[in-house]
Amino acid sequence: MSAAAQSSPAEAPARRLTISFAGIKRGTLWLLTASSGFALIEPSPYELVFLIVLFVFALTGIRFSQRMLPLAVLLLLYNIGGAFSLIPWMDDPDSVRFTAVSAYLMITAIVLAAAMADDTLGRLEALRKGYLLAAWCAGLAALLGYFDIAGLGDIFTLYGRASGTFKDPNVLGPYLALPIVYVLQHILTGRIGILRGLLALSVPLAALFFTFSRGAWGVLIASSAIMTALNFLIAPNAAARGRIVGMALAALIAMALALIVALSFENVRSVFEARASLEQDYDQGVTGRFGNQLRSIPMLLDAPNGFGPLRFRWLFNQADPHNVYINAFASYGWLGGIAWLALMAATCYVGWRLVFRRTPWQNHAIALWSVLFVTILQGLQIDTDHWRHLYLLLGLVWGLAALPEPATSRER
């Protein structure tokens, strides 16, 4: 009998559970995006989890690159402008809270950008997987609410549109665009099969549709088209390009069939036809959305500090400008408005450069930038300055752009 056979179980080497700092950091980042889909309460779980992320990275180390300075400086100037605009309204709790949230979101973008300096692929994957889980949770809540299952319609819908775990369907819809684009990209590049991919798409895509948000529909269509085109351009050979075209057509046909089925129901079709119109009643006229925006511009040219945080609603017959660039000047003054415009222009410059760099994380960069670029354009029709996922995308794109080119890429 061998010695190994004679040894008792007690003498066998004990297995040790080891948890590395890298694993802890990935876990907190996963938890951050996994909690990002719950925004019915404030502070939301995302805010609380970010404090954990901040603590973990501060304790275990984080590196800030000089290439991130434009992001940090422009966001700082934007918030300084907001602080100046707040001065006459310090006695208004809503205005103070609005300005504080802006400063908090600035910190999230900068920290997430710095988090990309090490273990880039591992952290990106952790963020992606957490985001997909959150999209499923928010999407399920949206569908339960829209179909009023278990009486949840009053909680998870707004004006007959799916809002899920968000306060506004116009925010839920664009939030769901990134995980959908990621899954589509995985289908096109062969990382997952089309049946498994369509299953992963099912709930987030259905929820996005039932938000009946024109902006969300536009973001999804445009960002998916950009992602497909970019992956086609960087494909290594004709076979890969052929797969992208074939899978894109197959996914498009599957989605078209799903749309036909959905529109076969009268109640869905009637809302869809009303929402698909490019112009709504509240958009038209001198006091409509676009009329108010035009009337506000001459007034803002005479107001270096803007109107003040959340003061646009007091001057015009609508809650917000529905244009993030006008809102930047209205709520953050000239300094904040110019800083926001400069940040968006600089982001477009680094984003388009980033997606054509041959790096191990190029596919991630393409998915992130496709959605962020369209979201920047979407700012012309909605206020995006307090969207958590916008700052997530900003931070990740700037963080990836700040990374040095891998040695394998330089050797080509």
Explain this structure to me?
This protein is an all-alpha fold and 412 residues long. It has 18 helices and 2 strands. The chain has helices spanning 3-6, 21-34, 45-60, 69-86, 93-115, 120-146, 153-156, 169-188, 194-210, 214-234, 238-263, 266-276, 289-301, 312-315, 324-354, 362-378, 388-401, 407-410, and strands spanning 157-158, 161-162. A two-stranded antiparallel sheet has the order 1-2. It is globular. The relative contact order is 0.13. Residues 1-12 have low confidence and may be disordered.
Give the SSE map.
Elements: H1 3-6, H2 21-34, H3 45-60, H4 69-86, H5 93-115, H6 120-146, H7 153-156, E1 157-158, E2 161-162, H8 169-188, H9 194-210, H10 214-234, H11 238-263, H12 266-276, H13 289-301, H14 312-315, H15 324-354, H16 362-378, H17 388-401, H18 407-410
Antiparallel strand pairs: 1-2
Helix pairs in contact: 2-3, 2-6, 4-5, 4-15, 5-17, 6-8, 6-9, 8-9, 8-10, 8-16, 10-11, 10-16, 13-15, 15-16, 15-17, 16-17
